[in-house]
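Work Package 3 committed the consortium to producing structural models of liganded targets before the mid-term review. Because experimental data for this complex are still outstanding, the team generated a predictive model from sequence and the ligand definition alone, so that downstream docking and mutagenesis planning could proceed in parallel. The input record is reproduced below exactly as it was submitted to the modelling pipeline, together with the SMILES string for 2-acetamido-2-deoxy-beta-D-glucopyranose.
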Amino acid sequence: MDGIPSVIFFFFFCNILLLTRYGSAYPLCTDSRSPFIPKSPHAFCQYSGRGCCNSTEDVELRKQFKSLNVSGYGCASLLKSTICSRCDPFSAELYRIGSGPRVVPVLCNSTVLANSSQSHLAATDFCSKVWDECHNLSISNSPFTKDKAGSVVNSSSRLTELWESKGAFCDEFGGASGDGSGKIWLATVPAEGSGETLGIDVSNPFLDLTDEVYYDTELGMMGIAFHPNFQQNGRFFASFNCDKVKWPECSGRCSCNSHMGCDPSKLPSENGAQPCQYHSIIAEFSANGTSSQPSQATSVQPLEVRRIFTMGLPFAAHHGGQILFGPEDGYLYFMMGDGGSIGDPYNFSQNKKSLLGKIMRLDIDNIPRELQIEFSVSGSTSSTGGQTITDRGLWGNYSVPGDNPFSEDEGLEPEIWALGLRNPWRCTFDADRPSYFLCADVGQDEYEEVDLITKGW
Ligand SMILES: *[C@@H]1O[C@H](CO)[C@@H](O)[C@H](O)[C@H]1NC(C)=O
Ligand SMILES: *[C@@H]1O[C@H](CO)[C@@H](O)[C@H](O)[C@H]1NC(C)=O
Ligand SMILES: *[C@@H]1O[C@H](CO)[C@@H](O)[C@H](O)[C@H]1NC(C)=O
Ligand SMILES: *[C@@H]1O[C@H](CO)[C@@H](O)[C@H](O)[C@H]1NC(C)=O
Ligand SMILES: *[C@@H]1O[C@H](CO)[C@@H](O)[C@H](O)[C@H]1NC(C)=O
Ligand SMILES: *[C@@H]1O[C@H](CO)[C@@H](O)[C@H](O)[C@H]1NC(C)=O
Ligand SMILES: *[C@@H]1O[C@H](CO)[C@@H](O)[C@H](O)[C@H]1NC(C)=O
Ligand SMILES: *[C@@H]1O[C@H](CO)[C@@H](O)[C@H](O)[C@H]1NC(C)=O
Ligand SMILES: *[C@@H]1O[C@H](CO)[C@@H](O)[C@H](O)[C@H]1NC(C)=O
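The resulting structure, written out as tokens with the ligand in place, is given here.
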């Protein structure tokens, strides 16, 4: 599918959250259960397929609805829909946006699927609708109070008695992200034959790396990360795979080498590709210069400002690729799988000298000066007096935080933050407790893992 950009940017509102939800997240109920199929259909909150309510909860929700004693049909059906969103397969996202749990779910239309036939409904501003239909009507035991703890108002009250305007009401209950930034950033791959799940405007990408990125089953655009000071410095980073046969700048050391007890010439070719034909790359880009402030840029030059990392891959699979900035330390974390094949045949993941099967932690704010000089002589590494990247044993243009685990275990390559992973696919820092660094690591035969990542492990 030519012409589908690799990184796409657009503004989002409530409706887009709904679409991305189906495109990128898995459902979760408020109590962290997975949605399930009820034994029999519910009498009140009728959901087809998986949901978050059992029959007892359905009866409770019906009671809650009755206790509202709303007269108007239009308002009543909206409030029913609001109450029944407890049973929505994504109820966790509706009730836990931002920090604490909510008494009233975010007032988007929670039940519209990303199906194109229905997606026009997602454009409905549900909060506005609730206000328009309900503001005049008495609601008993109203949950729409100003008290976020959700103390109910016993006597009947109208929304107009509790809130001065629709705007004030929807500031509290409506919307989606609550962060006010209005933007979401997506890295995407061509949806080859898969049917679209995201409503994306492909005509105006933020950054188009179609020519650089090599796509295949496990190869492609892997991640994007914005510098913690992006608003000021415009720096952002893309992690992707490339094919050195198709793009000359895709060329780096092979992760299978004699140092690792691995001879690339002995590795099989996969789908006609030679070992280390494919690479994992982190490239730096800049949003400077296209608007007065980086955060206002709607498209940028696809010009690599600097290459951060380049490594040749032994096989075509298991090379993670996500990049994340640590919320507390500001370092760039880079997830890397064991390089592929079954059972990690070269034992890369446990090898302290290999970067395969690891999480790396890199400092991209302090790039050694001699490496910077090296940039300006474009590829000629011998004409500088300083050490080259290769002399330093690095895999790119970064420095190593002094407190990486190698400071306690000399056997470890300095980039390594944690080892022994198979394919750490998506990781996240807990927003409330940044020391909780969780990674989903893809299993081989029977188990998938969620790992708590700590320094050295
Ligand atoms: C329904 O779910 C609630 C909350 O998880 C639980 O306490 C209750 O026992 C369940 N009822 C039935 C009939 O499964
Ligand atoms: C329900 O509302 C109606 C008015 O719409 C009122 O007459 C009735 O007393 C209310 N019932 C309860 C139980 O509050
Ligand atoms: C979404 O909400 C609207 C009311 O705003 C309703 O008419 C529509 O049926 C809802 N869609 C679904 C799928 O429930
Ligand atoms: C979504 O769309 C597909 C194909 O258009 C259809 O088979 C499926 O039933 C739809 N799902 C829902 C819940 O409407
Ligand atoms: C709200 O109430 C006023 C009178 O109190 C009435 O004129 C108006 O039509 C009502 N609006 C709605 C949406 O019911
Ligand atoms: C509301 O009324 C119930 C009984 O009808 C009572 O138990 C409860 O304390 C009251 N709540 C408030 C906030 O007044
Ligand atoms: C981007 O511009 C800002 C000033 O607006 C400057 O401080 C920063 O160094 C620039 N960043 C890059 C990567 O050129
Ligand atoms: C893999 O490497 C680790 C660490 O060097 C070693 O303990 C282990 O025995 C090796 N496993 C295999 C199967 O070679
Ligand atoms: C270091 O940066 C230069 C300039 O961007 C680039 O040519 C080189 O490939 C980078 N080295 C690695 C190993 O990524």
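Reviewers should note the following from the model. Residues 55-68 form the longest helix (14 residues). These observations will guide the Year 2 experiments.
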